[in-house]
Amino acid sequence: MTRADGGRWVCNVNVHGVGVPTRPLEEGEDEVWVSVEQLEGLLDAAVGRPEVVITFDDGNISDLEIGLPMLLERGLTARFYPCAGLMGEPGRLDESDIRELHAAGMVIGSHGWRHRDWRTLGRDPVGAPAAEELVRARQTLERVIGAEVTEVAVPFGSYDRHVVSALRRTGASRVYTSDGGWARPGAWLQARTSIRADHGGDFPSRVMSHRPGPRRRLRGRAAQLAKRLRG
Ligand SMILES: [Zn+2]
User: Fold this and answer.
1) How far is the CA of 214 from the centre of ligand 1 (A)?
2) Side-chain half-sphere CA neighbours of 169 within 13 A
3) Distance 111 CA to ligand 1 centre (A)
4) pLDDT digits (tens, 9 = 90+) for 39-89
5) Highest CATH level, class, for 11-229
6) Could you tell me the residue ranges of all domains in the chain?
7) Which of 50, 59, 84, 159 is least surrounded by CB atoms within 10 angstroms?
8) Is the four-CA dihedral 60, 127, 150, 136 of positive or negative sign?
9) How far is the CA of 157 from the centre of ligand 1 (A)?
10) What is the CA(211)–ligand 1 centre distance, in A?
């Protein structure tokens, strides 16, 4: 990618847990749990690349213990999306950890309340489960950091038109998915690519090397549209 493209595309890369897990993992979580070396490689590659956005989902304690020092060493900032209802559980960030990330200049957004699949919340966006996941979670994080929390990252990247409409109605300013590929900087829906345990050392250069060509762009848009419309 050339510098001239920098303002037109962003490359969002998502991180889950890092290092040795300190809690029993949920099903499939080991597939996205990466090594310290993998995170180092990713962050090294992001230095001097303002179009690369690093996000951390799930509020694992490794965000603070491993991710934050590595980011600060490199002069990078990242966006963190913890689940408000899991704060303080074993292996997860607690309130003061989240305040520490925020005080260090990191952006705090919401990943919902208890890591539920938002497609199962029911159709009523102000019904109890949806209100907890989409409203209470954000309000709780706002209380914790003493600042507005308007961004969300969708658990499991699972959304449909009902989720999209509930997110719009509850005032989310930006929504990170897991659709892969690059995104327009101002887009409300931001596709991300997750770093996975089986990714080799060439992952950062592969994911960051080119902005999408017309064909990939079209494919990405078609996949996103299909999810936005399904219900
Ligand atoms: Zn998650």
Assistant:
1) 30
2) 14
3) 7
4) 999 999 999 999 999 999 999 999 999 999 999 999 999 999 999 999 999
5) alpha beta
6) 11-229
7) 50
8) negative
9) 8
10) 26
